[in-house]
Structures are given as structure tokens and as C-alpha cells.
């Protein structure tokens, strides 16, 4: 690459005043650094936008036997509501929480599916199941709603025999629009018996 750059510069008479070898080497190093920077910047520019999914509330207190509702909201840094879709897993501890239902979701690729987390996909040994949720729109019109938008609720039942404990709803990405990355936020549930 250095020889190519040197030839280009010499052909364009940019180095006619650079007589010494050290000066030429400095020029080549500078140009090489510039090319590497441009290549890195080009790669980073391909993934500059983020599809955000956040849970609300980010933390809550609940008693054994209580049903809680977690709301999901979506936004994207490009403000483009005509993407192909989005997919994620929500992990939970099934000894403390039981999935009840998911409602108000729109343009679903398929209904939410409960899976065993046998491979510890969220790197959290305290979670053992996850809800798989995905949206897909062939025509690239997803979500087609004003952003940020409400995606729906997921309801859990706190085990009636649950002890005082803290459990986390972890989230990880399964699919994003090409060139986008997923930005996710978890939620903590503090279980405390009523007094």
C-alpha cells in the first residue's frame, strides 16, 4: 500500500520537494494513517443508528401472588419508522415469575413464544426461560407508527410462595434492520411480601 501511495503522490508531483527519505516516510505514514482512518470511519458509518427497546418500569416492587405488567417502548435514532423489523428475547426466572400474557402488540411476525434458556443466552444463570418476540415487514414499513411508540405489555405472575428476592428481566437482540444495532434495557423486580 505504501508503494501505491508513493507512486500516486509522485505522479501528481506532490513529493517533488521532499528530497530526503525520512520526510518521504513521514508523508507515507501520515497518508497510510489517513486511509486507515477513512476505512474505519466508513465501517463505523455503516452502523451508526440504534433501534432502542426499553422496559417500563425499569424497577418495581411486587408482592408474592401479585400480577405485574411490563410495558415495552420502541424508538430508533434515525427516526425512521419504515424499517424491516426487530426481534428480541426477554429472559426471566420461572421459579419466581410465570408468564401470563402479552397484549397490545401489533404487526407481529408471530405470537410470542416461551422457550427454555438451556444455553444461558443472556449469561445470567438465574434466568431459565425467555419470551421470543419478533416483528417483520417485507415492504419495510415497520413499525409504521409515530416514534417513539408503545409496543405492548407483558404480564407476569409473582409466585405466591416467592421469598424476598430480586430478579431481573434481561433482554437481548435476535434481529435488527441491516446497518442498525440494538440498544436494550433490562428491568429489576424486587419481591417483598406484604406486611
Q: What does this entry look like structurally?
A:
Helices cover 18% and strands 46% of the residues. The chain has helices at residues 2-11, 21-46, and strands at residues 49-56, 59-62, 67-76, 82-83, 85-92, 97-103, 108-116, 129-136, 142-143, 149-158, 165-175, 180-184, 187-191. Mean pLDDT is 80; it is low at 1-20 and 26-45.
What integer value in Å does the Rg equal? 26 Å
Helix segment tally: 2
Mean pLDDT: 80
- Relative strand content: over 45%
Overall number of strands: 13
Shape: elongated
**CATH topology value of the largest domain:** Immunoglobulin-like
Biggest sheet strand line-up: 2-13-11-5-8-7
User: Which consecutive residue ranges, at least 5 long each, have pLDDT under 50?
Assistant: 1-20, 26-45
SSE class: alpha+beta
CATH class of the largest domain: Mainly Beta
Q: How far apart are the termini?
A: 73 Å
In short:
With 195 residues, this protein is α+β, with helices and mostly antiparallel strands. The chain is 18% helix and 46% strand.
Question: Which features does this protein show?
Answer:
single chain; 195 residues; alpha+beta; Immunoglobulin-like; 2 domains; six-stranded mixed beta sheet; five-stranded mixed beta sheet; disordered N terminus
